[in-house]
Amino acid sequence: MAKVLPGRYTAQTDEPFVVFLIGMRVNKLWALHKWLPVASAMGPMLSSLYQHPEKGFLGGFTTLGWRGITMVQYWRSFEQLEAFARSGDDSHLGAWKRFNQAVGGDGSVGIWHETYMVQPGQYECVYANMPRHGLGSVMAHVPAVGRRHTARQRLAAQAPAGEPG
């Protein structure tokens, strides 16, 4: 079990990064033969990404819901995320082809993703009495005190020189 860090923390970076949300939704519960392969495809992808940090994957976490799975991923750049998605040497492209062949547009399983490209100073976060989590697990994890105490102060503390905070 991850160690709980008492107090308030935030994540800090001076580099741009990408937040990538990806998930699947079970639309037809009885279509186990359709959604189970989709759900199980993410494991090998993540294993490969954690073994090869040079691909740009910083980390992430998974949540399970009543009808689906969502993963929040952090990447160094959109270019690295896209390269992984399109590479024939990585597991995503094959999984995408299998999904389209097995499920296609039959409605049994839904998949989705959202991509956010974040510039320095354009994010804020806080973690109170938590293990390292989210951005705080992949970037510098610093106390949320002083000029990092409130959301507005955290954003102002990150604002590039000459920009209002």
Describe this structure in words.
This protein has 165 residues and is α+β, with helices and mostly antiparallel strands. The chain has 2 domains: 5-13 and 124-158, no CATH class; 17-118, Alpha-Beta Plaits (2-Layer Sandwich). Helices cover 32% and strands 32% of the residues. It has helices at residues 32-51, 78-86, 91-102, 135-138, 151-158, and strands spanning 5-12, 17-26, 57-64, 68-75, 109-118, 127-130, 140-143. The chain has a 4-stranded antiparallel sheet with strand order 3-4-2-5. Strands 6-1-7 form a 3-stranded antiparallel sheet. The longest helix has 20 residues, at 32-51. The termini are far apart. The mean pLDDT is 92.
In short:
Helix content is about 30%, strand content about 30%.
Jot down its keywords.
165 residues; alpha+beta; Alpha-Beta Plaits; 2 domains; four-stranded antiparallel beta sheet; elongated
List the helices and strands and how they pair.
Layout: E1 5-12, E2 17-26, H1 32-51, E3 57-64, E4 68-75, H2 78-86, H3 91-102, E5 109-118, E6 127-130, H4 135-138, E7 140-143, H5 151-158
Antiparallel strand pairs: 1-6, 1-7, 2-4, 2-5, 3-4
Helix pairs in contact: 1-3
